[in-house]
Amino acid sequence: MTIREQIEQHYGKSTRMLLKVLERRVGTREGAEDVLHDAYERVLRYQNSYNKDLQTFTAWFNGILNNAARDYKAVERRLGMSVEFDEELDEGVKLLDWEQDTIDKVKIDVESKSFPLRQALYLYFFKQYKPKDIALVLEMSNTNIRKGVERFKKEMQAKYIVGG
């Protein structure tokens, strides 16, 4: 089956279900339609990049669809059209209250972590991103980011506050 046939078959079988999923994800039926349209447009534009030996068509399409949804939500946030009801992490380590020497040490500790936790910690502590936004940027789960941040906070508190 050619890639074009796979796209047509996928569109015919999956459109209704994908619209329902996307509507919950982006908030409106119109937004879901926009995201799905954008995803199929990207699929057609990048169809030559699909390699059936590396992944299934569905996995390849889902990656494109997730990117389209992420981009849609990013534009919404940038334009101030998105309402975020994000649970805030408990107040813990406030780096801004620390001495510059300690902040420099924390930066070194962040850099010692493995990817993608290192990037998540950097975005959280030094760029003030919320875990939900980091999850979109890094394609990690919100839960994993929250757990990683909490563990790192405890580690830094033990190391720099409690006299470690």
Structure explained in plain terms:
With 164 residues, the protein is mainly alpha-helical. The chain has two domains: 3-78, no CATH class; 95-161, Arc Repressor Mutant, subunit A. The chain has seven helices and no strands. It has helices at 3-26, 29-45, 57-78, 100-111, 117-126, 131-138, 142-161. α2 crosses α3 (57-78) and α5 (117-126) packs across α7 (142-161). The longest helix is centred in the N-terminal third of the chain and has 24 residues, at 3-26. It is elongated.
List the SSEs and their pairings.
Layout: H1 3-26, H2 29-45, H3 57-78, H4 100-111, H5 117-126, H6 131-138, H7 142-161
Helix pairs in contact: 1-2, 1-3, 2-3, 5-6, 5-7, 6-7
In brief:
With 164 residues, the protein is mostly helical. It has helices spanning 3-26, 29-45, 57-78, 100-111, 117-126, 131-138, 142-161. It has two domains: 3-78, no CATH class; 95-161, Arc Repressor Mutant, subunit A.
Number of domains: 2
- Overall SS class: mainly alpha
Classify the beta-strand content into a percent band. under 5%
Q: Which stretches are low in confidence, meaning pLDDT under 50 for 5 or more residues running?
A: 83-94
What is the count of DSSP helices, taking H or I runs of 4+ residues?
Answer: 7
The total strand number stands at: 0
> What summary fits the major beta sheet?
none
Helix proportion? 55-70%
- What would you call the shape? elongated
- Mean pLDDT score: 81
Please trace the helix and strand order, writing H or E for each element.
HHHHHHH
Beginning-to-end CA distance, first to last residue: 62 Å
Radius of gyration: 20 Å
